[in-house]
Amino acid sequence: MSGQILAITNCRVSSEEQLLNNSLNRQNASVISAAERLGAIIPSDGQWSGSVSSKKGNNLKRKDIQEMLDYCKKRPLVKYLIVDEPDRFMRSVDEAFYIEMEFKLIGVKVWYASDDDLNNDNMQAKLMKFMKYFVAEGSNDERQRKSVSGQLSAVKEGRYTFCPKPGYMKGDVAGIHKVHPVRGKALQKVLKDL
């Protein structure tokens, strides 16, 4: 790989539940395609993927970001960090631009695979990138407000606000769980046998 341009990739979802959908596979295909268009090779140890919170306040110390920065500092042939789109990288305007600058200072450009217009260094691209991060951060703030409000309402109504425990399932009445007819009985048997 001597002299070859290298790229690292980051594919991210926000929660363990999202790992079950196809988002990481789709993101992975997108970043690989972008690397091919750039003529860059992705080293086998240059891929980060998984469930990581990217909400405002979490990004400066995110383990994956620190690992990628360290990786690039040790490998000057890495010229790109390819992510699918801004909200898959992080959901904070200030932190996004700060982290982009951290990579830029070591010669690595953050590249958005799903939107080539964001990869220019002109004012239009900067504005578009700002708007993408602004929307992502706003979406996170709205979700947090709605989640807290919904949780408080459920508690006031006497409803259980979390996913059913193993062996249970959602009941006919919101917030009231019942024993799952198959899993619940199987779990009960295992516990009794123990």
Can you describe this structure?
By secondary structure, the chain is of the alpha/beta class. It has helices at residues 23-38, 63-74, 86-89, 93-105, 123-156, 183-193, and strands spanning 6-13, 47-51, 78-83, 109-112, 168-170, 177-179. A 4-stranded parallel β-sheet has the order 2-1-3-4, with helices on both faces. Strand 1 (6-13), helix 1 and strand 2 (47-51) form a beta-alpha-beta unit. The longest helix has 34 residues, at 123-156. The radius of gyration is 21 Å and the shape is elongated. The mean pLDDT is 83.
Structural key phrases:
single chain, 194 residues, 6 helices
Topology (SSEs and partners):
Blueprint: E1 6-13, H1 23-38, E2 47-51, H2 63-74, E3 78-83, H3 86-89, H4 93-105, E4 109-112, H5 123-156, E5 168-170, E6 177-179, H6 183-193
Parallel strand pairs: 1-2, 1-3, 3-4
Antiparallel strand pairs: 5-6
Would you tell me the structural class of the helices and strands? alpha/beta
Strand content: 5-15%
**Average of the residue pLDDT scores:** 83
Oligomer: single chain
Helix content: 40-55%
Largest sheet: 4 strands, parallel
**Total count of strands:** 6
Q: What form results from the Cα inertia axes? A: elongated
Low-confidence stretches: none
Cα-based radius of gyration, to the nearest Å: 21 Å
H and E order? EHEHEHHEHEEH
| Strand ordering within the main sheet | 2-1-3-4
Distance between the terminal alpha carbons, to the nearest Å? 56 Å
Instruction: Tally the helices.
Output: 6
